[in-house]
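Data availability (excerpt). All sequences and predicted C-alpha cell strings are deposited with the supplementary files. A representative entry, C3H1-type domain-containing protein, is shown inline so that the format can be inspected without opening the archive.
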Amino acid sequence: MQANQVQFPNQKYKTQLCRHFITNGNCALGARCQFAHGRQELRANANGFQPNSEFIMHQNPQVAPPLKVQPINPMIANYKTQLCKHFNPQTGQCKNGATCTFAHGEQELNQMNPYFQNQYMLMQQQIKQQNQAQIQAELTQQILIMILSNMEHIFPGQQDIINVLKQGQEKAKQGDNQGASEIIKLIIHDEQRTKEEKQQYQQIYNNAQRHYDSKLKEYLNQ
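C-alpha cell line:
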C-alpha cells in the first residue's frame, strides 16, 4: 500500500448518508459510524459510484425523460425543493447546517419525484383528516357537556335525574362521548318524559347543534 493511500474499514465506508443523522440531526455512534454525517463526508466506493450524488431515476423508457432527483427520505418528500430562508449566501452558512432540508442556493434546487410527491400529498391529506376527526371529537365532547349541563334546568328538584346528568358530564370530560350520549338517550326516551320536557330538550339540542356547526365551519375555513 502506498504511503499516501487512505485505508478504510470496508468498500462501502462513508458511501451512504446516515439515516439517523438525516432524521434526528445526530447519531449515537458519532465518529465510529460507518455512514456519512452530511454530504461533505460522502466518498465514492470502489467502483467509483457515489450512491448519494444526483442521478437520473429511469422508471419507464416509454415516457418523457424522468426528473433529476436525489434519494430522499419519504417523510421529507419536499427535500431541497424550496429555497432555504435561513441560508446566508454571503457567508454560506445556515443555522440548520448539514441537516437542513431546504436548498442552499438555486444550484441545489431539486425536483420532487412524482412517486414521493404523491406519497407526500397523501400523507398531508391523512394528517388533515386525522386533525379534523380530532376536532370533531373535541367539539362533540364540548357539545355533550353543554347539553347535559343545560338539561339540569329541565328537571328542577329531581335530584336523581340531575345526579345522572352529572355522571354524563363526567363521562364526556373523560372522553367517553358514547357513554355520555347513552345517558342523554336514557333520560329523554324515558316514558315518563312529558311533552314540555321533550320540547325543552329539543331546543337545547338545536342550540348545541348550531354551535357545533359554527365551530366546525370555522376550523374548515382556516
